[in-house]
Design brief:
Distance between the termini of chain B: 59 Å
Helix content of chain B: over 70%
CATH superfamily of chain A: P-loop containing nucleotide triphosphate hydrolases
Strand order of the largest sheet of chain A: 6-7-8-3-9-10
Distance between the termini of chain A: 5 Å
Radius of gyration of chain A: 18 Å
Number of domains of chain B: 2
Structural class of chain A: alpha/beta
Number of strands of chain A: 10
Shape of chain A: globular
Helix content of chain A: 25-40%
Number of helices of chain A: 10
Strand content of chain B: under 5%
Radius of gyration of chain B: 23 Å
Number of helices of chain B: 12
CATH class of chain A: Alpha Beta
Oligomer: heterodimer
């Protein structure tokens, strides 16, 4: 595995994602985040690990302004996430949700991929090109006119990735990308994600997948970042994993899988 | 994955005929005009309804739809016209004897009126559905400036009907796997709770879909990506059904 590279931002080039002091309580009083600090440099691939209920999804919904922080700030490529910047931020942060049936809501694959760029104002041949390029990148170009419910689960997940790629995002945020995928579909998705030259933040329980795809990992537990470091080091720290209800699959040893 | 074919898939019959190729909004306008004309025809002009049926048969022939296909789909009308069969018995006024039954004359005309106009309307809709993909129907409605919210609701129904049906099937399998079969009123509460659970699930899915839409810049309106267009020739071809019908209707009133 590559050593963790945290590219120093070139002068005038802000990190893809900069979260500082982020705290949030739901309207019912339940506090989910207690001051999260996280910086993801341009081009980095970071896994966001954590047990259920740690606040991972809450954090993700802050990244494109669906939820508004109680305290703290979120910046995407230097742009603060506030009401006035929402259209721009939502174009730059591509969130792939866990259930592709939630993400693919249009009658055909092509229209679904076109939804985001069309909202951003693209029309005509430019829009066509954008859609076919995004579908090409996930290997689904031949399925443009199919209705999403006629695709396999793995294909739907790939189309869901294409829907956000079409918006040419600064950072790709994936919520449990490997959930419900069979091993072949899981590998195909990994190949696609590795082929993208993009900043990636991947929320997952799937520790081997995190190791395979993300050189760096952070552990979110009880609403704070509990650990941040190279993925192989974090996964080798049994005490840390146990403390945050994270477990490796039976027989999996991160120390022997280094490439 | 489900590979299921919803009701939409069963109604549509793929083809490349002239009728199939007409833009959806032309067909929608043609069917609407045809139905209005049929409804406006006096019920005493029995021959006119024969002419209308013949026009529809011509359309079906051009679209290469087998008669059996169309007739089977007409069955959907049955529950709606059941009332028509009661009319001759319950209506008042002068009565006629037929096979020992005493039937009301105005009731008979009323029944005929409902039956004939209903059947022609349903047949026209069946032809529309058989030659036009539901997706295209929605685009047509959008083109005809139906309120966008209605079109959005309809297109979400089209997208999620199968998802919800799958969900319902899974819930039924889960019920039956634990030994449940609905045998009588005592079990209705279980079925009612299933319906409630399904409603909650759909509602929550709706919220998640809305989040996904917001994340891609949804601001209340669907971007129009495919704009249907129709030339004069296509409108002329679409008029081939309602215009002769209108002539028949006018003759029905004047003759």
């Amino acid at each position: 595995m590559d050593p963790v590279t945290r590219p120093d931002p070139a002068p005038g080039q802000a990190p893809s994602l900069d979260v500082s002091g982020l705290a949030y309580a739901y309207p019912d009083g339940h506090q989910a985040l207690f001051g999260v600090d996280l910086t993801v440099g341009r081009g980095e691939r970071v896994a966001l690990l954590g047990p259920n209920g740690a606040g991972k999804t809450t954090l993700v919904l802050h990244l494109n302004g669906i939820l508004t922080p109680g305290a703290g700030t979120v910046r995407v490529a230097g742009t603060p996430v506030v009401k006035d910047t929402l259209p721009e931020v939502r174009r730059r942060v591509g969130i792939v949700f866990q259930d592709p049936d939630d993400q693919l809501f249009m009658p055909t694959v092509r229209e679904d991929v076109a939804f985001g760029p069309a909202n951003a104002g693209l029309r005509g041949p430019e829009l066509e090109r954008c859609v076919s390029r995004a579908l090409d990148r996930v290997g689904m170009a031949g399925y443009a006119d199919r209705p999403p419910h006629h695709l396999s689960f793995g294909q739907r997940r790939r189309v869901a990735v294409a829907t956000v790629l079409a918006m040419d995002p600064e950072i790709l945020v994936l919520d449990e990308p490997s959930a419900n995928l069979d091993p072949a579909a899981r590998r195909e998705l990994a190949e696609i994600l590795l082929s993208l030259d993009l900043t990636v933040l991947m929320v997952t329980h799937d520790l081997p997948y995190a190791l395979e795809l993300c050189p760096r990992a952070v552990v979110l537990s009880e609403g704070v970042i509990a650990a941040d470091g190279p993925t192989p080091d974090l996964l080798a720290d049994e005490a840390l994993l146990r403390a945050h209800r994270l477990e490796l699959p039976f027989g999996f040893d991160p120390r022997t899988t280094r490439r | 994955m489900s590979g299921s074919h919803g009701p939409a898939a069963r109604l549509y019959r793929p083809g490349t005929s002239a009728v199939h190729r007409l833009p959806a909004h032309c067909k929608l306008v043609a069917v609407l005009a045809f139905v209005l004309t049929v409804v406006a025809t006096p019920r005493e002009a029995v021959w006119a309804f024969g002419a209308y049926a013949a026009f529809l048969a011509c359309v079906a022939a051009v679209a290469r739809l087998p008669a059996g296909f169309v007739l089977r789909r007409l069955v959907i009308e049955v529950p709606f016209v059941a009332f028509a069969f009661l009319l001759p018995f319950i209506a008042t006024g002068p009565r006629v004897e037929w096979l020992g039954l005493s039937l009301s004359e105005s009731g008979l005309w009323g029944a005929w009126n409902i039956l004939a106009k209903g059947t022609l309307g349903v047949a026209a809709s069946v032809l529309l559905a058989a030659t036009t993909e539901l997706r295209q129907v929605l685009l047509g409605l959008q083109r005809l400036r139906l309120p966008p919210l209605l079109v959005q609701i309809a297109s979400f129904m089209l997208r999620y009907a199968d998802v919800i049906a799958d969900e319902l099937t899974r819930m039924r399998i889960a019920r039956e796997s634990r030994g449940f079969t609905a045998r009588g009123p005592r079990h209705w509460s279980v079925l009612a709770k299933t319906a409630g659970a399904l409603f909650i699930r759909c509602y929550e899915r709706g919220e998640r879909v809305h989040l996904a839409m917001l994340s891609r810049g949804y601001d209340g309106g669907m971007p129009v990506i495919d704009r249907l267009t129709a030339g004069g020739a296509q409108w002329a071809r679409a008029a081939a059904l309602p215009v002769p019908a209108l002539v028949v209707c006018v003759l029905g009133w004047t003759l």
